[in-house]
Amino acid sequence: MKWGKQLYWMFVEASKAHARWDYETSMNILTNRKKLLLLAFMTMPVVLGSVALAMDLPATLGGYKAYTPAYYSTSIFLVSIVIGLCAGLITGCIGAGGGFIITPALMSAGIKGILAVGTDLFHIFAKAIMGTAVHKKLGNVSVGLAIAFLVGSGLGVFGGGFINRALYESNPVLSDTFISVVYVLLLGFLGFYSLFDFLRLRREGADIGAHAGESPHGGAAATGKVGLPAKLQSARIPPSITFDEDLVPGGKKIPALFVAIAGAIVGFAAAIMGVGGGFLTFPIFVYVLGVSSFTTVGTDILQIIFTAGLASIAQYAIYGFIFYTLAMGMLLGSLIGIQLGALTTKVVKGIYIRGFYAISILAGFVNRFFALPSKLKQMEVLDISDSLAKGLDQIGMVVFFVVIGFFALWVISKFFGNIRYLRGEV
Q: How many CB atoms sit inside 10 A of residue 382's CB?
């Protein structure tokens, strides 16, 4: 199971890297008056939607009788803020991406899987465009790496988007089932490994913070001098890309093909799952391709903007699979949640945060796993009673929202309970 443990740690590091980007992006928005005004302008359609509710809208333009993602209701907007808030609390407090829970949460709230994926991608894209200070964060970007990666990412995005849309057009239930299965496999693997890791640390009496950011595979393995990075960099497949010239005399070289393949994997995952792809870019670049962390950070920022933008607009928006009201609500909620969560880490032991991380991931796993019987019954693959299918679905939904809700209330209570300390008054 050595490969499984290594894969788990790659996902953990990926999640941390994405959380750092999410936190920095959110703080950049909150501390910039112009960007806050832009955010207010972006939410104006929600205000106009409130006025439109009092009108008799035609069924083909914003009405609830036709399939139109623009349909608005106050309850939908409030639910989206809560979902964004919880995801932000997880990201800020745990120091690991909370985006894993957004798509399951939206699907549990009654949103079609393909619409949840497209909406989450647009929410990530909007946050990246608003909050990323590119001129400050790009650092030592290798143009060659960026171009090769984005070419592959574009191909992956179109492939993943095509599969999602084809499944939906074939059978909307099949689309929801496919997305649920993807999340069950990923969250189950990550959640159980996280739980075992937490229990191990608890037995050993460790108290490791979630924001330590240290990899268990540091050192030479992360520099491309040994293992898989060394093998890939020694391959002679033209054209080759030179990078890290400022860190290594003469720089390192790697075939563009491998970088493009990495981009395709990230783009495909982003389009299928509704994530920005940043949670995969960092570990693939550092631990597979052997790129320095310094160069990886800049490329990661670029790829999130372009991958999320291309996926959300070219693969979902133009086909009507983005719910803008939800996206704006999630953006508002996550900006608040990330700040509260990050401050709370100053008064909570790291070992407890790790435990909540594992439980939150497993809650998402339980949610999608218990939703599968109902989907399989609708597809006539599983022969069970309606009451059993509905009951299992309800159990998964209740467990998910109770766990996430309890976590959110716990973080908020810790924040307000220690607000004097956090303000430096004690």
A: 14
Domain count within the chain: 1
Whether residue 274 contacts residue 98, with contact meaning beta carbons closer than 8 Å, is answered with no
The model's pTM is 0.75
Residue written as token pair 């798509």: 103
- DSSP E strands, 21-178: none
Q: How far is it, in rounded angstroms, from Cα 279 to Cα 10? A: 9
Give strand pairing partners of 254.
Answer: 241
219 Rama class: left (phi>0) / alpha (psi -120 to 50) / beta: left
What six digits make up the tokens of 336?
């608040």
Q: Could you tell me the residue range of the domain that residue 333 belongs to?
A: 2-422
On whether the CB atoms of residues 313 and 159 are closer than 8 A, the answer is no
> What is d(CA 122, CA 331) in angstroms, rounded to the nearest whole number?
10
Terminal-residue alpha carbon distance, the chain: 48
pLDDT 10s per residue in the chain (426 long)? Answer: 565 666 666 666 666 666 677 777 777 777 778 877 877 777 766 555 555 544 454 444 344 443 444 455 677 778 888 888 888 887 777 655 566 778 888 888 778 888 888 888 888 888 777 765 544 455 556 778 888 999 999 999 999 999 999 998 888 888 889 988 988 888 888 788 778 877 877 777 654 444 433 333 344 444 445 578 888 888 889 888 888 777 778 788 899 999 999 999 988 988 888 776 666 777 788 878 888 877 776 677 677 788 888 888 888 888 888 888 788 888 888 888 888 877 777 776 666 676 777 788 888 889 889 999 998 898 888 888 889 988 999 999 899 888 888 888 888 888 888 777 767 654
Structure tokens at 39: 């955010």
- Dihedral (CA of 330, 333, 336, 338) sign: negative
